Amino acid sequence: MIKRNQVPASVWRDPVHFSAFGFGAGASPYAPGTVGTLPAVLLVWLMSYIPIIWYLCVICLLYVAGVWVCAKTSNDIGVHDHPGVVVDEVVGYLIAMILVPVNVWTLATGFLVFRFFDIVKPWPICWLDKRVDGGTGIMIDDVVAGVFSLIVMQLLLIYVGLPPAGLSG
């Protein structure tokens, strides 16, 4: 039986909680992590027009902000890594798509690959998920899932013969 996501009422009143819940995307009654990653797909598409240095700066800023909003939200609602907190999924997916040329295929593949690593949590993701506390603990497993996904995406790009974004040959 699939467990229904229980969303605290504060998500709709507190801007910090609202941002941690992906501006409401994490409030999905089912599969909040997957639904909460979907806005990141749009964000990657929109950011595909900016230079890579700015893309990386956005990731860094979202990571730092994510650590803070995750820690505050977790402390306020009394639940470490509530399933509806999805700012970590957004950062993880952005990492997965670094230097990936943006098209429907790559966006969908990156989404599936990232969700795989985020759900399955192979080592060291599972180790970090269980042992690191606070906002950093909420964010770090998705960051590593994003790095694993980035490696897979780059290998897929090489395998299918597409050059990484920003490089021409």
Structural notes for this entry:
This protein has one domain (31-160). Helices cover 64% and strands 0% of the residues. The chain is built from seven helices and no strands. It has helices at 15-20, 32-47, 52-77, 87-96, 104-120, 125-131, 134-160. The longest helix has 27 residues, at 134-160.
Question: Domains counted in the coordinates: how many?
Answer: 1
Give start-end ranges of low-pLDDT stretches.
none
Largest sheet entry: none
- What series of H and E elements makes up the topology? HHHHHHH
| Beta content | under 5%
DSSP, total strands? 0
From the N-terminal CA to the C-terminal CA, the straight-line distance is: 51 Å
Instruction: Quote the average pLDDT.
Output: 89
Number of helices: 7
Structural class: mainly alpha
Rg estimate, integer Å: 16 Å
Principal-axes geometry comes out as: globular
Helix content: 55-70%
Write out key terms for the chains shown.
7 helices; 64% helix; mainly alpha; 169 residues
Produce a short descriptive summary.
This protein is mainly α and 169 residues long. It contains seven helices and no strands.
